């Protein structure tokens, strides 16, 4: 066990602009546009996405980084993952329990740790022996090392864009430095950067300028800094998301592959 995942991974969300669930056929169409990645990260179990993505990714020999979005429903969400896997656990590299829940104030550290333990026990009983982690921001992970101590490896989201002091071509160097800080805070554990990217549109954040050219520069910089253990964010523009004062009008525009085919 442990983080190492060779090659690059990509995050994906199966929602239409109106936040409705994409169909099985839509998701399959989206995956036809994805190549060159060894693993797909998803965030929840709604929309039957675990089963659908396992099928779509499996046809392209990609692993899946599965997710439990609402830790207050951890047991029912784990059961959906168990049902989707149907005994074939080889394709699931990691199950994440929560995403940035401590950073955004949704959950206490203790609640997340308890949910990780509960999920791990339930998954183990169903025959899963892979990684179980929680994902949070690198800031929250460093401040609360209990999160990574309870995880099989440290799983941290890190976007150079939000720092404001980093240009696109320096994104890789910045994110690698934060990954090293996370590993140190977590007692030397392997760290996977579970989200990192750059928006193609939006408002400038000091030195961080969103543009198509800078998105390409940032992704190239990230790929130069990491040969493994990084999930690039995200596959397609997510028009179902809403901006808030801290997102610089960029929430829709992180898609590395542009607009989704579906």
UniProtKB/TrEMBL annotation:
Keywords: Cell wall, Cell wall biogenesis/degradation, Glycoprotein, Glycosidase, Hydrolase, Secreted, Signal. It is found in: Secreted, Cell wall. GO terms for cellular component: cell surface; extracellular region; fungal-type cell wall. Its main location: secreted. It holds the Pfam family Glyco_hydro_17. GO terms for molecular function: glucan endo-1,3-beta-D-glucosidase activity. This is Glycoside hydrolase family 17 protein. The lineage of its organism: Eukaryota, Fungi, Dikarya, Ascomycota, Pezizomycotina.
């Amino acid at each position: 066990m442990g983080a190492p995942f060779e090659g690059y991974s990509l995050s994906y969300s199966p929602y239409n602009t109106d936040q409705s669930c994409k169909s099985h056929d839509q998701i399959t169409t989206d995956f036809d546009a994805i190549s060159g990645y060894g693993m797909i990260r998803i965030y929840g179990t709604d929309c039957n996405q675990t089963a659908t993505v396992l099928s779509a990714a499996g046809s392209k020999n990609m692993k899946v980084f599965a997710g439990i979005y609402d830790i207050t429903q951890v047991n029912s969400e784990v059961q959906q993952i168990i049902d989707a896997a149907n005994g074939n656990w080889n394709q699931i590299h990691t199950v994440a329990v929560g995403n940035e829940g401590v950073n955004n104030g949704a959950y206490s550290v203790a609640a997340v740790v308890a949910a990780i333990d509960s999920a791990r026990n339930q998954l183990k009983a169903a025959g899963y022996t892979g990684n179980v982690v929680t994902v949070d921001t690198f800031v929250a992970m460093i401040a609360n090392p209990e999160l990574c101590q309870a995880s099989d490896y440290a799983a941290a989201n890190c976007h150079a864009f939000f720092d404001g002091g980093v240009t696109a071509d320096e994104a890789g160097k910045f994110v690698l430095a934060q990954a090293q800080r996370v590993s140190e805070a977590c007692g030397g554990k392997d760290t996977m950067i579970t989200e990192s990217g750059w928006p193609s549109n939006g408002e400038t954040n000091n030195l961080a300028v969103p543009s198509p050219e800078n998105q390409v520069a940032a992704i190239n910089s990230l790929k130069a800094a990491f040969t493994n253990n990084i999930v690039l964010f995200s596959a397609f523009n997510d028009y179902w998301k809403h901006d808030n004062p801290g997102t610089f009008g960029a929430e829709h525009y992180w898609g590395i592959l542009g607009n989704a085919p579906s």
